[in-house]
């Protein structure tokens, strides 16, 4: 099975005061650098979903794709973007991850894949909380998602997932939740603290 991975970085970062929170410093690199470092070994190809000038990500040497449906229309637009791209690469499956979550599990894909079937969405959970942007998606769902976005008022990822076969896969939260994400300046400060103990 060929797996493509897309990093969802298409939001407005409003709680950080705008700009790209994924490009904020973390240790000796950036938040996005750390996401790429953890995801890349797990997949056959990596791309970034981001709106605006793609040149700001040029140092990563990765494909950059803006939302394929309604710019800034939420994570589902980025997931559709990923599915369209993954289909062009010949991948069977797409893994999506959030670009503001620098401690994502290094075995994320392996564990989601082990729990899923070819036609099943596998979604990560921790502390009984579902993380719908951390999911393994059959590329065959592309057209279903296009239809959903064109016909349904909801833009919630969980609403789309609930309409399809899916499985939830729990992840450990020791020494901290690997799905910790950066939304505010305080979160960034906490991430700087956690970075010293993350592997």
Report on this structure.
With 199 residues, the chain is of the alpha/beta class. The chain has helices spanning 31-39, 75-89, 108-115, 142-151, 157-162, 185-195, and strands at residues 3-8, 25-26, 29-30, 45-49, 64-65, 93-98, 121-126, 129-138, 166-170. Strands 5-4-1-6-8-7-9 form a 7-stranded mixed β-sheet, sandwiched between helices. The chain has a two-stranded antiparallel sheet with strand order 2-3. Strand 7 and strand 8 (129-138) form a beta hairpin. The protein is globular and about 40 Å long.
List descriptors:
6 helices, 9 strands, 7-stranded mixed sheet, alpha/beta, 199 residues, two-stranded antiparallel ribbon
Arithmetic mean pLDDT? 92
Q: So how many helices?
A: 6
Could you give the count of β-strands?
9
Which stretches are poorly predicted, pLDDT < 50 over at least 5 residues?
none
Across the major sheet, the strand order is 5-4-1-6-8-7-9
Proportion of strand residues: 15-25%
Can you write the helix and strand succession as a string? Answer: EEEHEEHEHEEHHEH
How many whole angstroms does the radius of gyration measure? 16 Å
Helix content: 25-40%
Termini separation:
27 Å
Q: What's the story with the biggest beta sheet?
A: 7 strands, mixed
Q: What structural class should be given to the helix and strand makeup?
A: alpha/beta
Overall form: globular
């Amino acid at each position: 099975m060929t797996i493509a991975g897309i990093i969802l970085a298409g939001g407005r970062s409003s709680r950080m005061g705008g700009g790209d929170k994924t490009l904020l410093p973390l240790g000796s690199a950036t938040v996005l650098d750390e996401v790429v470092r953890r995801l890349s070994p797990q997949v056959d190809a990596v791309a970034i979903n981001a709106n605006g000038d793609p040149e700001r990500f040029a140092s990563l040497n990765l494909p950059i794709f803006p939302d394929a449906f309604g710019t800034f229309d939420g994570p589902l637009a980025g997931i559709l973007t990923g599915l369209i791209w993954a289909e062009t690469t010949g991948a069977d499956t797409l893994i999506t991850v959030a670009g503001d979550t620098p401690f994502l599990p290094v075995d994320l894909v392996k564990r989601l894949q082990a729990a899923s079937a070819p036609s099943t969405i596998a979604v990560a959970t921790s502390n009984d909380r579902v993380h719908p942007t951390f999911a393994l998606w059959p590329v065959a769902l592309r057209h279903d998602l296009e239809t959903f976005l064109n016909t349904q008022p909801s833009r919630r990822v969980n609403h789309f997932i609930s309409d399809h076969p899916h499985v939830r896969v729990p992840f450990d939260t020791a020494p901290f939740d690997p799905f910790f994400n950066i939304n505010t300046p305080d979160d960034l400060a906490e991430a700087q603290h956690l970075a010293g103990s993350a592997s």
